[in-house]
Design brief:
Layout lengths: L3 H9 L1 H15 L10 H24 L2 H17 L5 H16 L5 H14 L17 H13 L2 H13 L4 H21 L5 H19 L11 E6 L7 H12 L3 E4 L6 H11 L3 E5 L6 H15 L5 E5 L1 H5 L11 E2 L6 H4 L3
Parallel strand pairs: 1-2, 1-3, 3-4, 4-5
Bound molecules: cobalamin.
Length: 346
C-alpha cells in the first residue's frame, strides 16, 4: 500500500485531529464561540472533518493527489451552488494542515496534498480534472480508432476493432482499453475547442454502432438465471459506458435489462418493482447528478428494504471521487467495465 506510514499515523490520530480542528476553529473565529457548546453543530463539524480526512486517506492510499484535489474542487462547487461560504471548508483544511505540520510525525505527503488542494481552491480557473480509470490503454489501436471517428470514417473504426477482436481482446477490454480512452480524448478535444460538437456527436454515434457490431462476434456464457437492471440516473445522457458494462454482464451469462440514458427515478423504481432484479447498475457522469443518485438509492432502500437489489454504481462522476460516495447507500463502485469480472462482490 502507498504511503503506509502516513496512513497509520492519520488513522491513529483521527479523534485527536477532529478535536484539534474543532477547538482551534474558535481560535480563528472567537466571534463564533457560542457554537462550541452546541452538540448539533459539534457533531456536524466533526463529521465534516472526518469526511475530509477519509478522502485524504483514500487519496494517499492510491497515491493520487489529484483525487484529493478533485474532491475539494467538487466540494467547492457544492458550497458555491448552495451559497455556503467556502471558508467553512478551507478553514478546516488549514487546521488539518496545521495538525499535520505540528505533529512531528513526518506527514510530508499529507502536507503536500493539503497544500495542493488549498492552492487549487484559491484558483478560480481550476475545475475538476478528468481522470481516466483505464490504466492499460491499447495506445496504437486507441489512436487509430480516435483518428477514424474524428474523420467520420466508421468503416476504418470498425476495421480497427475487428483486428482487436481477431487478436482475442475481449469485449470489455475493447470497451475499456480502446473505446474509453478514445472517447475521453474526444471529450478533452471538445473541452479545449479543438473539435466541434458535431464531431463529438459523430464519434458517439459511430461508437454505438461499432460496439453493437462487436457484440456479434462475442461468445456468450451459458445463462446463469441471474437478472440485472441497468440505467443512467435521471439527467445523465452519457450512455456508452453503461452500455459496455451491461453488455459485459450479458456476455457473462446474466439476463440484463438496459434502460439507457436519463431515466426518471420513479420509472427506475417501477422497473425494479416489476422485474425484481438481483442487481441494479446505475451510471452517473456529472457530479451534479450525485444528489439524484442519493435520492434514488434512499428511495430504493426505503421501499424494498432487505428485498432490494444489490446496487452497483459507476461512471465519470463516481470515478472523479475514487468511489468515495459519501452518505450514498450503494453496495459497490467499480471504475470500469473490465474490472467487473474480477471485482464484483455480490
Ligand atoms: C459523448 C459525450 C457526451 C454525449 C453523450 C452521448 C451518449 N450517447 O452517450 C452528449 C452530447 C449527450 C454529452 C452531453 C454533455 N456532456 Co458530455 N461527454 C461525452 C464524452 C466525450 C464521452 C463519454 C463517453 O462515452 N465516454 C466513454 C465511456 C466508455 O467511459 P465512461 O462513461 O467513463 O464509462 C466507463 C466507466 O466510467 C464505467 N462506468 C460507466 N457507467 C457505469 C455504471 C456501472 C454500474 C459501472 C460498474 C461502471 C460504469 O465503465 C465504463 C466502461 O469502462 C465525455 C468525455 C469523457 N471523459 O467521458 C464528455 C463529458 C463527460 N461531457 C461533459 C459535459 C460538460 C457535457 C455537457 C454538460 C455538455 C453541455 N454543455 O451540454 C452535457 C451534459 C449531458 C448530461 N446531462 O448528462 C464533460 C463533463 C465534465 C465534468 N464536469 O466532469 C466531459 C468529461 C467532457 C469534457 N472533457 O469536458 N456528452
Amino acid at each position: 500500500m502507498h504511503n503506509a506510514h502516513e496512513l497509520v499515523v492519520l488513522e491513529a490520530h483521527s479523534d485527536a485531529i477532529k478535536r484539534f480542528v474543532f477547538d482551534e476553529y474558535f481560535t480563528l473565529h472567537p466571534d463564533k464561540i457560542a457554537w462550541r457548546n452546541d452538540p448539533k453543530i459539534k457533531a456536524i463539524c466533526q463529521d465534516d472533518i472526518a469526511k475530509h480526512l477519509s478522502f485524504l486517506v483514500s487519496a494517499l492510499e492510491r497515491d493520487s493527489e489529484i483525487q484529493f484535489i478533485n474532491y475539494c474542487l467538487w466540494l467547492r462547487g457544492v458550497f458555491q451552488s448552495r451559497d455556503i461560504p467556502l471558508a467553512h471548508f478551507t478553514d478546516g483544511l488549514v487546521l488539518l494542515r496545521r495538525f499535520c505540520a505540528e505533529s512531528g510525525q513526518g506527514l510530508s505527503k499529507s502536507l503536500f496534498y493539503l497544500d495542493q488542494a488549498l492552492a487549487a481552491l484559491a484558483d478560480d480557473s481550476r475545475s475538476l480534472t478528468i481522470v481516466d480509470t483505464c490504466t492499460q490503454p491499447d495506445i496504437p489501436r486507441t489512436e487509430s480508432y480516435l483518428s477514424a471517428v474524428l474523420r467520420g470514417q466508421s468503416r476504418d473504426a470498425w476495421e480497427g476493432l475487428q483486428q482487436a477482436i481477431n487478436s482475442d481482446l475481449s469485449y470489455s477490454a475493447i470497451g475499456t482499453r480502446i473505446i474509453q480512452p478514445a472517447m475521453y480524448q474526444v471529450g478533452s478535444l471538445w473541452e479545449t475547442n479543438k473539435i466541434t460538437v458535431a464531431q463529438e456527436h459523430l464519434a458517439s454515434s459511430i461508437t454505438q454502432n461499432t460496439l453493437a457490431k462487436t457484440l456479434a462476434f462475442v461468445e456468450y456464457e451459458t445463462p446463469n438465471d441471474r437478472m440485472a437492471l441497468f440505467s443512467c440516473v435521471e439527467g445523465n445522457h452519457h450512455v456508452i459506458g453503461l452500455r459496455i458494462v451491461a453488455d459485459s454482464f450479458e456476455i457473462a451469462g446474466w439476463d440484463t435489462t438496459f434502460l439507457g440514458a436519463n431515466t426518471p427515478s420513479g420509472d427506475i423504481i417501477a422497473m425494479v418493482r416489476e422485474i425484481k432484479p438481483e442487481l441494479l447498475g446505475l451510471s452517473v457522469a456529472l457530479t451534479q447528478q450525485l444528489p439524484t443518485l442519493k435520492a434514488l438509492t434512499d428511495d430504493i432502500h426505503r421501499e424494498f428494504g432487505a428485498d432490494r437489489p444489490f446496487i452497483l454504481v459507476g461512471g465519470l462522476a463516481t470515478n472523479q471521487l475514487g468511489g468515495m460516495l459519501d452518505n450514498i447507500q450503494v453496495d459497490q463502485w467499480i471504475p470500469h467495465a473490465q474490472a467487473v469480472s474480477t471485482d464484483l462482490k455480490i
